[in-house]
Amino acid sequence: MREWNITRKEYAIEYAKKHNVLVAVTNKTIYSRDWNLWHLSHELMGRDISPASLLVELNEVSGRHEIGRIDMVENRLVGMKSRGVYETPGGTILFTIERELKSLALDRETIQVKDSFALKYAKLGYVGRWFEPLRESMDEFM
């Protein structure tokens, strides 16, 4: 497809028609689905949506399937253990997407530094040190 400059699915459909190649998709049914024993995949339809609306929709859809639910015992800041059940379906989906995009775009060393910064950054907020110079410096660096 790259050799023939077919950069969009619409162009691929046009190319197939021009060369009498039968394909099961049209411009109206352009998004593909793949199903087998191991998985079911879909392409997401392209549409503009605000970040907040996206998260609401992800929470609704993925929450029905118990994505992002964790039952854990955490070590609290004051030294006690606390058991809790947390749910973040939309956040889990977005985190997974971000991790995959990061693996495609960044080199190994940059990913390692970014991940170490992310842990430190989160901890600063968790322990109430958000307004300290270190967090502000990390903002400037990133």
From TrEMBL:
Pathway: Amino-acid biosynthesis; L-arginine biosynthesis; L-arginine from L-ornithine and carbamoyl phosphate: step 2/3. The keyword Ligase applies. Residues 44-141 form the Arginosuccinate synthase C-terminal domain. GO terms for cellular component: cytoplasm. One of its GO terms (biological process) is argininosuccinate metabolic process. It comes from the Eukaryota. The keyword Ligase applies. Coiled coil: none annotated. Its EC number is 6.3.4.5. It is an enzyme of class 6 (ligase). Keywords: Amino-acid biosynthesis, Arginine biosynthesis, ATP-binding, Ligase, Nucleotide-binding. Signal peptide: none annotated. GO terms for molecular function: argininosuccinate synthase activity; ATP binding. Pfam families: Arginosuc_syn_C (PF20979). InterPro entries: Arginosuc_syn_C, Arginosuc_synth, AS_cat/multimer_dom_body, Rossmann-like_a/b/a_fold. This is argininosuccinate synthase. It comes from Lupinus luteus (European yellow lupine).
